[in-house]
Amino acid sequence: VCFAGCDETLTETNINPNGVSPETANPNLLLPNVLRGFARDYTELGEGNAAGVVQHMQEDGWYTNYNEHRWGATDWTNYYQQLNNMQFVYERAVEGDQGFHQGIALTMRGLIFGHVADLWGDAPYSQALRIRDEESIMLPAYDSQQDIYLGVLEELKQAVTTLASANPSVANPGSSDLYYNGDIEAWQRFANSLILRFAMRLSEKLPDVAESHISDVYASGLYIESVGDEAALAYNNADPWPTAAVGTDATDFRRRKPANTLLDK
């Protein structure tokens, strides 16, 4: 009965007609998701519980998170989801010889991994994104914070080199690039500026390494020099700010504000 009841049409029937095959997926469809997701998570640090912990933000008497130290645990799930998506963008860009997308993916990988090291110190890095390779590593080893920073600096240097050699008229991400709308030189400035950031993280322990990277970036002349060069995602009218009033209580927005500890500085 089992043999008679199975045929080749069963496999065809269970193929999702609306699914996207990894082999044909367009990396532009993932870029906005990662760029927007990281921008929101990064912004939340400046106005959420972390900002209360360091007394940069304060809530009024009706709130308890800051005032009574009721802080829940925060993990890195979102960041590693973004990294996995960006790794997929990179792999698809390599297959399609899309240099611009490769450069963006390397820049964002460096930024997010460096950000994880900033917040947690030691973390999965060298084995973190190897779930889809032949070894299929499910439990990646932790790398030291120092090794992560050193790896990030090399990734960002590779990003700058890749962007410099890419043709922006070929497979330009355009509006899928929520930060720079397909401006390849702006991404080079951003990647170089991130090199400056993470070189400074090493400057106390490895001053010679930091100095070398900083000197190279300065000599290139391509780095963020003004507010107009920065990577930024503007909030639209439908989503104006992560702390905007929710529901019917219009005072929610006013109950969270900069703390005197920050203002006095």
Order of helices and strands: HHHHEHHEEHHHEH
Largest sheet: 2 strands, antiparallel
Lateral strand order in the biggest sheet: 1-4
Care to count the β-strands? 4
Q: How many H/I helical runs? A: 10
Strand fraction equals: under 5%
How much helix is in the residues?
40-55%
Mean pLDDT figure: 86
Instruction: Give the overall shape.
Output: globular
The termini sit apart by 79 Å
Task: Enumerate the spans where pLDDT stays under 50 for 5 or more consecutive residues.
Answer: none
Q: Helices and strands: which structural class? A: mainly alpha
What Rg, in angstroms, do the CA atoms define?
22 Å
Oligomer: single chain
Can you put this structure into words, describing what you see?
The protein has 265 residues and is mostly helical. Helix content is 49%, strand content 4%. It is built from 10 helices and 4 strands, in the order ααααβααββαααβα. It has helices at residues 2-5, 9-13, 31-47, 49-53, 77-95, 99-120, 145-165, 184-202, 207-220, 260-263, and strands spanning 57-59, 123-124, 142-143, 256-258. Strands 1-4 form a two-stranded antiparallel ribbon. Helix 3 packs antiparallel against helix 5 and helix 5 runs antiparallel to helix 6. It is globular, with a radius of gyration of 22 Å. The relative contact order is 0.12.
